[in-house]
């Protein structure tokens, strides 16, 4: 299994009361079912990048800080990316934009897809995010997920009551994404 292509499922929110980690873990497990790829979680809360502090633009790859070099190495260790994030005020979380902006060439030609979520699925955030992925010259897959998570789906602490029941409608799209990802990484 060491020769498996690795895909990062990126947890794109760091909010203390977030559900993003649970959504990403559920998604990773669904993507992994029957896949020949190896899906792993990358949690931006654990990466803990400071607000972009590199003195030189990312395209130059002249990283002054160890946290940037470590982030670069981690990103380069993956063959593709699946980003999971909530929609905040019609956009995607700043921590995710920050993580993308730290690097440039490391993202180039890597296949990518996403799962956005919100009370209406997070489509506005997804649209903005896809624009940025194109700017990074990533190979954006044709399929992504906009998961609807309403106030009725969460408890008084803001946590999902029934993650399987809430996200089950997205299983078919996740299977399709795994197929597209498998095809995309086979061309690397």
Automatic annotation (TrEMBL):
Q: Give the GO molecular function terms.
A: FMN binding; oxidoreductase activity
Name the residues that span the membrane.
none
Q: What is this protein called?
A: NAD(P)H-dependent oxidoreductase
Where's the NADPH-dependent FMN reductase-like domain?
6-144
Which organism is this protein's natural source? Amycolatopsis dendrobii
Q: What InterPro entries does the entry give?
A: Flavoprotein-like_sf, FMN_Rdtase-like_dom, NAD(P)H-dep_reductase
One Gene Ontology term, aspect cellular component: cytosol
């Amino acid at each position: 299994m060491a020769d498996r292509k690795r895909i990062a499922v990126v947890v794109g929110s760091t909010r203390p009361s977030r559900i993003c980690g649970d959504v990403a873990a559920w998604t990773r497990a669904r993507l992994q079912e029957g896949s020949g790829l190896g899906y792993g979680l990358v949690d931006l809360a654990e990466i803990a990048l400071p607000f972009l502090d590199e003195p030189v633009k990312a395209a130059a790859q002249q990283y002054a800080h160890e946290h940037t070099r470590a982030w670069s190495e981690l990103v380069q260790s993956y063959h593709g990316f699946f980003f999971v994030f909530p929609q905040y005020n019609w956009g995607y979380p700043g921590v995710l934009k920050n993580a993308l902006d730290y690097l440039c060439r490391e993202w180039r030609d890597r296949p990518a897809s996403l799962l956005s979520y919100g009370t209406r699925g997070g489509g506005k955030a997804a649209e903005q995010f896809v624009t940025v992925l194109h700017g990074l010259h990533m190979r954006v897959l044709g399929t992504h997920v906009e998961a609807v998570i309403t106030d009725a789906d969460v408890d008084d602490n803001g946590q999902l009551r029934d993650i399987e029941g809430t996200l089950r409608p997205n299983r078919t799209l996740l299977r399709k994404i795994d197929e597209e990802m498998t095809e995309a990484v086979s061309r690397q």
